[in-house]
Design brief:
CATH topology: paralog of FGE (formylglycine-generating enzyme)
Strand order of the largest sheet: 2-3-6-12-7
Shape: globular
Oligomer: single chain
Number of domains: 1
Low-confidence stretches: 15-30, 105-119
CATH class: Alpha Beta
Structural class: alpha+beta
Amino acid sequence: MRASGRIVVLLLLLAGLPSLAGAARAAEPLDRDFRECSVCPPMVAIPAGKFLMGSPASEHGRFDAEGPQHWVSVRAFALAKQVVTNAEFLTFLRETGYQPAPCDRILGLTWRSAGRDRAYPPGETDPPLDPAVCLNWNDAQAYLVWLNRKLPAAKDGKGPYRLPSEAEWEYAARAGTTTARWWGDAIGVGRANCNGCGSRWDNRLLAPVGSFGPNPFGLDDMLGNVWEWVADCWHESYVGAPEDGRAWTEGDCRKRVMRGGAWSNVPEFIRSAARSSGAANGRDFDTSSYAGFRIARSLP
């Protein structure tokens, strides 16, 4: 079946799934995965629903920027099963000649990715299945233009592939749950890669994509390992935030939102509601050196 036909079928399947609201249980797994081209990521269709975005004041590790909690309605969309890998980003670099700048130095040092002595974006010697990091928001946009051009219907790099909105990301990360993490409130052991998550990569190395079990929506590694850029401009709170799941692109967009937490962060950052920000064109050590991205797709 052609990819366009598969997406129509997926929409029919999604129409039959129960929407999620509050603590409603995530939908039963269905055959709702698809891949549209040889360099396109495996995607997972996410059903529409409504959820309470942000964290309650009682949640351990909560930051002020996670409130106020507010109800958000999300349309059906698709999200990549995993973040973009070194191998995937290298394909883009080889085909286009695009080359991000290295991450900045801090205290005379640079972040060291595996097999390299500078904090460059993915290189030929980096593990192919590790997340692509040392990338800023603009790098992600350049990749998406290239990817959209792989689809026959896309024009001038404009197409269905994009970054998820912050609301879509949190909705997908929660997958119908209301606890701090999709597996519960406690960080547990070996559920993610962070500084205190109990994995063999903790605070030392990136873990290969797919190293941790999928959440109820079938998405891998939604918390920990690497921060993920989303489409939204940074705001210090959710006062005035959209309630329809779209990206919040009003205001000062020199800073963009990142979600999920990274391998070096303490567990307080490894929560579904936790959020951070970085300069869209930045190369600072504390943000882009830990940042990658996961692709979303609009559905017809």
